[in-house]
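Posted in: Protein Modeling Q&A

I'm a second-year student putting together a small comparison for a lab meeting, and my supervisor asked me to include a predicted structure for 3-oxoacyl-[acyl-carrier-protein] synthase 1. I've never done this before, so apologies if this is the wrong subforum. The sequence is pasted below exactly as I got it from our records. If anyone can share the structure token output, I'd also love a short note on what stands out.
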Amino acid sequence: MKKRVVITGMGVVAPNGVDLVNFEDAIQKGKSGIRFEEELDRLKFSCQIAGKPQLSEEKIAEYFTPLQLRGLNSSGIVYGVIAGTDAWKDAGLEIQENEAPDWDSGIIFGTGILGVDKFREAIHLIDAGKTRRLGSTSVMQTMASGISAYLGGILGCGNQVTTNSSACTTGTEALLMGFERITAGKAKRILVGSCSDHGPYVWGGFDAMRILPSKYNANPTEASRPMSASAAGFVPGSGAGALVLEDYESAMERGAKIYAEVLGGAVNSGGQRGGGSMTAANSEAVIRCIEEALRFSEISAEEIDVINGHLTATTKDALEVESWKKALNSKDFPYINSLKGMTGHCLAASGSIECVASVLQMDKNFIFGNVNCEDLNSEISDLISEEKIPRKTLEKPINILAKSSFGFGDVNSVVIFRKI
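Accepted answer (user: helix_wrangler)
Welcome! Here is the predicted structure, written out as tokens:
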């Protein structure tokens, strides 16, 4: 018999809020974390705004030893360690200092690209013939699995400790990978999540593709406009989200707080065929992913109360809503919202940050509003009723929420949460 999987802890480092309390307050109030970045202006980016978490040196020092901080130059690792450690503590789990690993606990924590600034630092030193000045941590800061390795050592996890990477679906995919390991009885708990570096060396390629908004540099909080008729591209962001998934019986035995249950989900690819490409989703694959998530979770379309969409503020937003409408094929379309109006698109971190936002809504009985969507895209209003796209926060209980993420490479993931 499959094990039931519940969420017992969460942590978040987002552009509009660091820690659960500040993040929940921000999304309830529609607070944006998108700001003008002087560095992007100096480097002559067309888009000179971004969503970057605000962290002090004092805050960072709470999570790393002086030895770990020496030469640390990877924002993704910083974000991931803070979010992951907070989620662990939020679950009421202790950080053991003894010699024995926790064989029942593992980590699946993803990223898209890690240690970009450390790479740049290393390249300059190597080119200057100063390899020995690289320091002992350059490898662990730049290897993709550096984030799970850092967390694994801090938390002492002895089960599977690994990193996944699937562009913007990474965080949601990590959650489903952890879910599958627990349902199979191979672990009692898995810390899942994802992180993304910040900075021009991460965001520059997107600016070169001209898919970022360039006319809002003086009005950064208005730039990210999911489902809006005036959407002009996604705003780049960064950060990390983390969730502790746990076997239901284990959670009950130790009296843990349960935020929600993970019913299941699905992951697939459109194969970059049938309208899909490196940068665009195959709509048939999206529809199949949604349908498979419902089947696996053993729920009907009518039972979904809210969809937290991928919805990045591009011309593809209407197509995403259309795919949901076709997949659900129900008379009463659920409420739908997008976090990206407040955070921008946090790339590999987006799925996990948005999963945290989704579960917070369920736990606290609210649906956050869609920021910057006053001028709803007419292609979307032709598909669903405007009342299903709240502009302000609604106080409303949620029983079942569907979270979707779609990424470069034509990859898709959908997860279904249920309130307990």
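A couple of things worth pointing out for your meeting: Residues 1-420 form a domain with the Peroxisomal Thiolase; Chain A, domain 1 fold (CATH 3.40.47.10). The longest strand covers residues 5-14.
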